Amino acid sequence: MVNDEQIYERLIAITSAENVLVDESLEDHTYTRLGGNADYYVMPETYQEVQDIVKLSNQEHIPFTLLGNGSNLIIKDGGIRGIVLNLGRLTDISTDGIYMIAQSGARIIDASREALSHSLTGLEFACGIPGTVGGALFMNAGAYGGEIKDVLVSTVVVDRHGELLTLTAEDLDLAYRSSNIPEKGYIVLEATFALEEGDGDAIKAVMDDLTYKRESKQPLEYPSCGSVFKRPPGYFAGKLIQDSELQGQQIGGAQVSLKHAGFIINKEGATATEYIDLIHHVQKTVKEKFDVNLEREVKIIGEDSVR
Question: Which cofactors (predicted)?
């Protein structure tokens, strides 16, 4: 592998010095406010830059990690080696009739608001989802009875070799909180949604109602990764956790929320290790009490030990 100085020089040649941060703390880039440092935190501004960074990673065998806006993610205390790619500068959203094209770094909340501004219905469910468009495709994000696969038509991605591909929604094998994007190693660059013409006042009323439900029931006043667990068949994760008398349980600075049992909050200076240990404790307790396996919705990445 090329040395550190050469990696840095090649990265800034692809994009620019202001888009490449060295030994960057990832606490500032996740909703949990957890995680160690990234060797190189890179924020490309064009699709070509993304392709070139992937190709550099392949050529020089540099570890490579794609990071969204960190809303459904826990990064371990040891941080992430190699290149961490953030697409937060790819945020354009445009509409053409009933079709919306949104770049992957745009927030899915902003896409839902853009749809409202054009009186387009179909994305109301996303008005409270904190992730990016790319992250929403990655996990087929959903809420309140809607999900991405209901409205997605196609997507532009970069594959593991740095090649640009246009795929249909069917190509992604979208299912409950999952897709084949991680398995295939795709990097989502943009998505095209097919919406329907609707009544602006009615769309706003739905979004206002969903926003109220989210803000009144979720512990948004604390850092968290959002809903930690998938819904087990025939059950609700939050109800199982509540019935296991786990609300308020704490390991270090991490706590099972008193407001919504499906959330674990960073109440007071938690480490990623404490947060993850509490997740495991919840899974173990629910399994023992109800014989139900709680499967994580949140993704955990990075290294355990601090360098």
Answer: FAD
Residue 23: what are its φ and ψ, rounded to 5°?
A: 55, 50
Tokens 């941080």: give the residue: 79
Burial class (CB in 10 A: 0-12, 13-18, 19+), 184: middle
Chunked mean pLDDT (size 10), the chain, 307 residues: 79 97 94 94 98 96 91 93 96 98 97 98 94 94 93 98 97 94 96 98 96 88 93 94 97 96 95 97 98 95 79
- Token code pair at residue 286: 């629910």
Q: Which domains does the chain have, with CATH numbers?
A: 4-86 (3.30.43.10), 93-202 (3.30.465.10), 219-301 (3.90.78.10)
Cβ atoms of residues 165 and 159 within 8 Å: yes
Q: Please identify which of the residues 89, 177, 231, 296 carries the catalytic annotation.
A: 177
Structural tokens at position 182: 């991680």
For 170, the token pair is: 């069917």
- Phi, psi dihedrals of residue 180, rounded to the nearest 5°: -95, 10
Three-state secondary-structure class, residue 189: strand
Distance CA 182, CA 122 (A): 25
- What is the C-alpha to C-alpha distance for residues 121 and 98, in angstroms, rounded to an integer? 9
Provide the sign of the torsion angle of the four alpha carbons 193, 194, 197, 199, taken in this order: negative
Q: Report whether 127 contacts 213 (CB < 8 A).
A: no
177 is catalytic: yes
Determine which one of 27, 49, 124, 297 is catalytic. Answer: 297
**Structural tokens at position 16:** 């620019």
Catalytic residue among 112, 224, 227, 257: 227
Supply angle C-alpha 33, 283, 223, rounded to 5. 15
Q: Is 297 a catalytic residue?
A: yes
